[in-house]
Amino acid sequence: MTSLAHTRADFPALNQNVGAHPLVYLDNAATSQKPRAVIDAISRYYERDNSNVHRGLHALSMRSTDGYEAARKRTAQFINAADPAEIIFTRGTTESVNLVAQSWGAANLRAGDVILLTEMEHHSNLVPWQQIAQRTGATLRYVPVAGENAQHGLDLDALDKLLTPEVKLFAFTHISNTLGVINPVAELCARAKKVGALTLVDAAQSIGHEPLDVRALDCDFLAFSGHKMCGPTGIGVLYGRRALLDAMPPWQGGGGMITSVEYFNTTYKPSPERYEAGTPDVSGAIGLHAAMDYLDAIGRPLIAGHDNSLAAQARAALAELPGIRILGPEQNSKRGGLVSFAFNEVHAHDVVTFADQDGVALRGGHHCNQPLMRKLGLSSTTRASFYIYNTPEEIDALIKSLHKILKFFGS
Ligand SMILES: Cc1ncc(COP(=O)(O)O)c(CNc2co[nH]c2=O)c1O
Question: Domain named Aminotransferase class V: which ranges (predicted)?
Answer without folding.
Answer: 24-398
